[in-house]
Amino acid sequence: MSTHPLISGLNEKQANAVSADDRPMLVLAGAGSGKTRVLVHRIAWLIQERRYSPYSILAVTFTNKAASEMRGRVEQLLGSSVRNMWIGTFHGLAHRLLRAHYMDVGLPQNFQILDSDDQQRLVKRLIKSMNLDEKRWPAKQAQWYINGKKDEGLRAQHIETFDPTEQTLKQIYEAYQESCDRAGLVDFAELLLRAHELLRDNKTVREHYQKRFRHILVDEFQDTNSIQYAWIRLLSGQDNIVTIVGDDDQSIYGWRGARVENIQQFLDDYPAAITIRLEQNYRSTGNILRAANSVIANNAERLGKDLWTDGNEGEPISLYAAFNEMDEARYIVGRIEEWRDQGNALQDVALLYRSNAQSRVLEEALLHARLPYRIYGGLRFFERQEIKDALAYLRLVSNRDDDAAIERVINTPTRGIGNRTLDIIRQTAREQKKSLWQAAAQLVDEKQLAGRARNAVASFIELINTIDDETEDFTLGRLSNEVISRSGLLAMYEAEKGEKAETRVENLKELVSACENFTQDESEEDLTPLNAFLAHAALEAGEEQADEYQDAVQLMTLHSAKGLEFPMVFMTGVEEGVFPSQQSMDEPGRLEEERRLCYVGMTRAMQKLVITYAEQRRIYGQDFFHKVSRFISEMPADALHEVRLQTQVQKPTSYGRFNTGASHEAFEQTGFSLGQRVRHAKFGDGTVLNYEGTGPQSRIQINFDQVGTKWLVVAYAKLEAS
Ligand code: ATP
Ligand code: MG
C-alpha cells in the first residue's frame, strides 16, 4: 500500500477508489464502509495530486450539514481553503444556479423560496378561489400531485389526461404555477425543475458548467430522484468525470420519488464506469453489524453485499419492552444518565424515532431530567408559527408581490381585514392576473373597498412601505427588530398568556439575534443580506441550531440520521404499526423500504445500540396496543439482550414518572414492596417490579413467571403475598 498521506489511512479498495484514473466510477457499499470518507479523500486527491482546481469540482451531498462537514474535512486534509469549490445539496446548488441565471429562467432577481407549509396554504387558497369543494380537493393532495409532477420534470401543459380528477388537479397546478410566477416564488421541486430546464434549454449555460465542472461527485446516490439524475446527466458532457457513491440497502426516500434504479441507470449511461465495492465496516461492533445484516437479508430486491468487521463483538444490543411510551422515555433517560455519569459526552447519543410526533414524550423526559437535547428536523426554529410570521413581513419588505407572505400576515396581528375583504382582493388579483399586493393597492386607490376595510388595507400597505423606506441602511438585526415591533407581532404575542406565548416572544427575540449573527456566504455576494438570510431560513431550517456548541443529546427521525454515526444509539418505538408504519404493512415494496430504514437506523450505532418498544402507546390521543416489530424477530437472538426491569427499579432515575406522587412509604401502605413475590388468581406467581400513583388508583407492575410483565390496579388485582 502506498504511503501517500491521503491514502495511508485507507484499505486497498478505498485507496483504489481515491486514486482511480479519470473515469466514471460507482462505489457501491454497505453502511459504515467508508464511502463518504472515500469521497472526501478523492476530492483532496484530485486537488493535491491531480492538480485540479477546487473551482472545477462539484460535490453533491444529502444535507447542508453533510456539505459543510465535507468541505471542512477536505480543507483539513489539504491544509488550505477550497472556497470556490461548489459543494451542497441538490436544492442548494439549484438555488445557486437560478440566482446566477435568474434572467435566463425568467425569475425576478429577488425571487424567494416557498417552503412546503406556505406552498400548501397557497394551494388551498387557489382551490377556494376556483370554487372547488375543499373536502373533495384537499390542498395536501393537490400539493403532492404538483410536486410529484415537477419531480418527474413535468409542467402542467405537458400533462395530457382524460381522467376528470386529474384534469382538475392539472388546473390547480396551472393556477398555482401562474400565481408563483407572478409573485416570484419558487417551491422546492421548482428549484430542481427550473435549474434542469435551464441546463437543458440553454446551450451556453450548459456548456459553461460542463467546461467548469471537470469532476462531479455525488454522495448518497441511491436517494436521487429522476430530475436530480437528469441534472447530473446534463452537467456531464463528453469529458466530465462522474463519481457516485451509494448503497441500495439504504434507499429510504422512495416515497418521495427517489429511484434506486438510478444506480443501474448510471451503469447503462456510463458504460466505461468501474464499480468498486467496499466490504469492511469500520463503524460498528460485530454484534450490531451482524444484527443489521440479518435484518436486511429479509429483503428480496438487493444488489447484494457482504459487510464484515475486524473490530470486537462489543456488547449485545439492549432490548427493552416498555409498559408505555412514558416508561420507554424513562428507561432511555436512565440509560443516558448512566452514560453521562461514566464520563461520556451527551452529543455522542442519538435518539431515533420513526415519526416526529414521537419526539414530544422523549423531549419531556429529557427536560425533566435536565438533560440538554437538540432536535434535527421536526418543528424547527424557522418553521415555528411566530418565526414564519416575522419572516413573512421580511419577505414583503423584500418583495411586495409575495402572495404567500401577504396571505400569512395581512391580518396578523388582526387589523380589521376580514375574509370578505380578502376575498375581494383575491378575486381581483385572479381576474386581473395581478399579485395580491397590486390588487390591494388598486382597490384602495380606486376606492372600491368599504370605508373601514379600505383604511385597514391602506394602513397595511403604508406599514410595509414605511418599514422598507426607513430601514434602508439598517443592519439585518436592526431591520428584524423593527419588523417584529412595528408589525405588532411582538406586542400580540406579549399580550397572550401562558408558557407557549412566552416561548413565542423568546423565539422572536432569538430571530433578531439570528439576524445579527448571520454571516453571508461568499458565494452569496449577489444577494442582499436580507435575501441571503431569507434563503438561508428556507433552505437550512433546522439543520443548524442556536446552541450548536452545547453538549446535547441528539434527537431525530430515522430518515434524517442517514449518513451520520454515534457511539450510542437508541432506536425507539420499534413496534408493528409504528415501525414498520401502519401504512407500509400491506405493501411489500413499502415494507422493504421500512426495513432499509431499520438497517439505516441500526448501522448509525458505533458501540452501543438500544432498541425499545412499548406495549401500549398513546398516539394522537388514542391508545394502541402494538405487537413487537417484526424487525426485532429478524435479529439473531444471541445478539440481543432483553433488559430485565428489576435492576432499574432499585435505582430510580430523576425522571421519576412512576415514583412521582407515590412516595415509597405510601406504596408500602398498599401492603406490597418492590421485589416481593405475589400471586394473582389468573396470572399466577410473579415479582413486584414497580408502582405508580397513590390511593385507589395506584398501580403495580408485576413480572409474572408465566405471562411476563403486566401493570395492574392494586385495588382490583386481588393480589396475595405468596
Ligand atoms: P453510510 O453508508 O452510513 O453513509 P459510509 O460508507 O459513508 O457510511 P463513512 O461514514 O465514510 O461510511 O465511514 C464510517 C466510519 O468508518 C467513519 O468514522 C470513518 O472515519 C471510518 N473509516 C472509514 N474507512 C476507514 C479506514 N480505512 N480506517 C479507519 N476508519 C475508517
Ligand atoms: Mg456516508
From TrEMBL:
Residues 8-285 form the UvrD-like helicase ATP-binding domain. Its EC number is 5.6.2.4. ATP binds at residues 29-36. CDD domains: DEXQc_UvrD, SF1_C_UvrD. InterPro entries: DExx_box_DNA_helicase_dom_sf, DNA_helicase_ATP-dep_UvrD, DNA_helicase_UvrD-like_C, DNA_helicase_UvrD/REP, P-loop_NTPase, UvrD-like_ATP-bd. Pfam families: PcrA_UvrD_tudor, UvrD-helicase, UvrD_C. Residues 286-563 form the UvrD-like helicase C-terminal domain. Belongs to the helicase family. UvrD subfamily. This is DNA 3'-5' helicase. It comes from Idiomarina fontislapidosi. The lineage of its organism: Bacteria, Pseudomonadati, Pseudomonadota, Gammaproteobacteria, Alteromonadales.
